[in-house]
Recover the amino acids of this structure.
């Protein structure tokens, strides 16, 4: 999970756009541009530092993975949607009746990881993940319905998608399906707040960090945007949750123009330097006015602060807000005095004055406006120290016992994958090469196919054969999934010769992290 270690130029409402575009694409973005002023160069340096501190994430998390839905169907189908959620909502409806379709498998992917969820009895699959750019499509159509090849693209500014499915043998009845989809999108927007946290709202709910914020009335008169971003837990099982309250010096007209621009470009244009430059410039001064931190009762606040804001020179003041649900809440107010000249020159005068007003009143705002509710972990992972013990078979049907599987190897790298997971399959050739390198270190890789059943075991075998995989692959079992949790696929764990989990897992494809965690695991068994 991305660590929120930067206060300066903190990325809030549309962090995903900067994360996915910043520093990518090759070449010099400013080539051929006019020379920048010293203040502009300072601003760029500040923003670059903040983006580096923000880090990268492979991450996609979900509360509705197929395995979890299978194990707890009643809980999945009776869940009520919160009035406002930071999650991404995928609605699936009958194209002719508008009736919600329950139990539809939806695949949800970032640029490095996929997950699967199922629609509940309201026809919606919720993916509680970090803000970012995602794609969704129907993995398997409901029985009696035509297959859909449509792909929906979602961003942090547009967190809903609606799929309208036709029954087999039916044609679309009178009326435009786009109208129905638009109506469904309007409904989903009311539930999700998919245009972000608005300054005109009376209250914001941050469901992961776990608090509500009463929006001050004066924000409604701001020309610029005041908004929030629920960053969630800083890392797996860290028990440190973070939300940023932010000011963006862009008018309502500028915001509408940026939204229209993003909605009107093609996929190819969205990958262009021009698009990246426009987005980076738009969010150039997206500034956190306060950080709200929730830590597990008993944890040391200074240690938690080292995790999220290690440079204390950027902090003006901290304070405690209260406790709820086993968590203690604090606020952190940043110090922008060093960069005041940069901000004054870079912002329009009236918006700079608004930002100063927000900073002058932010302590009072959070003290009067924040009501702690208790943090909620978006996903569960297997804790360090857990001993895995299971019986299963390999893909050829041979019995496998975990004690035998792990014995004789200092460290075993466990890679969870599925036949439907594009990124799982794409990393397999490199995992095969890595497995040969690990053998020299008395380590090994095993794969666990998360979705293999009798009817698709040959498909799983063919996937491995086509990619030249020779390391051991076994079947996941329901019993195994009770202790070995998958927050998305691929997910990778490291265990010792007795099956004890040595490190926090890695979500997505990240070979740099694989090597880092391997070294961490080897040190743990020395």
């Amino acid at each position: 999970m991305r660590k929120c270690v930067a206060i300066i130029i903190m990325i809030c409402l549309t962090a995903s756009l900067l994360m996915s575009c910043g520093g990518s694409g090759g070449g010099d973005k400013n080539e051929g541009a006019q020379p920048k002023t010293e203040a502009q160069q300072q601003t760029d340096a500040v923003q670059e530092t903040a983006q580096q501190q923000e880090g990268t994430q492979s991450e996609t998390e979900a509360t509705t993975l197929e395995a979890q839905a299978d194990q707890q169907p009643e809980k999945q189908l009776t869940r009520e949607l919160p009035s406002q959620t930071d999650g991404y909502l995928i609605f699936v409806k009958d194209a002719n009746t508008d009736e919600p379709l329950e139990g539809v498998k939806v695949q949800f992917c970032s640029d490095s990881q996929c997950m699967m969820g199922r629609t509940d009895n309201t026809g919606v699959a919720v993916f509680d993940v970090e803000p970012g750019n995602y794609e969704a499509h129907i993995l398997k159509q409901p029985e009696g319905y035509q297959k859909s090849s449509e792909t929906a693209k979602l961003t942090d500014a547009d967190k809903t998608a609606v799929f309208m499915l036709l029954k087999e043998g039916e044609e679309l009845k009178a009326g435009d399906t786009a109208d129905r989809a638009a109506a469904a999108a309007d409904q989903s927007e009311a539930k999700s707040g998919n245009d972000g946290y608005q300054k005109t709202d009376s209250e914001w709910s941050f469901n992961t960090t776990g608090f509500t914020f009463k929006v001050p009335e004066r924000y409604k008169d701001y020309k610029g945007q005041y908004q929030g971003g629920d960053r969630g837990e800083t890392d797996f099982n860290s028990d440190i949750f973070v939300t940023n309250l932010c000011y963006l010096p862009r008018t309502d007209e500028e915001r509408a123009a940026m939204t229209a621009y993003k909605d009107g470009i093609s996929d190819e244009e969205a990958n262009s330097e021009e698009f990246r430059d426009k987005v980076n410039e738009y969010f150039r001064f997206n500034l956190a006015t306060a950080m709200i931190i929730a830590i597990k009762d008993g944890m040391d606040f200074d240690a938690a602060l080292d995790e999220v804001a290690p440079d204390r020179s950027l902090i003006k003041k901290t304070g405690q807000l209260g406790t709820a649900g086993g968590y203690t809440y604090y606020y952190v107010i940043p110090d922008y005095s060093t960069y005041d000249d940069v901000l004054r020159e870079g912002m329009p005068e009236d918006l700079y004055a608004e930002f100063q007003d927000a900073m002058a009143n932010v302590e009072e705002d959070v003290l009067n406006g924040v009501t702690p509710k208790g943090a909620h972990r978006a996903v569960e992972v297997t804790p360090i120290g857990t001993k895995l013990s299971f019986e299963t078979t390999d893909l050829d049907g041979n019995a496998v016992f975990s004690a035998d599987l792990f014995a004789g190897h200092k460290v075993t790298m466990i890679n969870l994958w599925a036949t439907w997971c594009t990124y799982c399959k794409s990393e397999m050739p490199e995992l095969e090469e890595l497995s040969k390198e690990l053998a020299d270190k008395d380590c090994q890789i095993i794969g666990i196919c998360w979705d293999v059943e009798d009817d698709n075991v040959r498909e799983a075998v063919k996937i491995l054969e086509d990619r030249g995989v020779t390391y051991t692959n076994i079947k996941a079992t329901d019993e195994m999934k009770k202790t070995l949790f998958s927050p998305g696929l691929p997910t990778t764990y490291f265990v010792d010769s007795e099956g004890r989990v040595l490190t926090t897992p890695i979500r997505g494809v990240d070979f740099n992290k694989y090597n880092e965690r391997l070294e961490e695991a080897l040190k743990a068994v020395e």
User: Anything to note?
Assistant: The two ends are 28 Å apart (CA to CA).
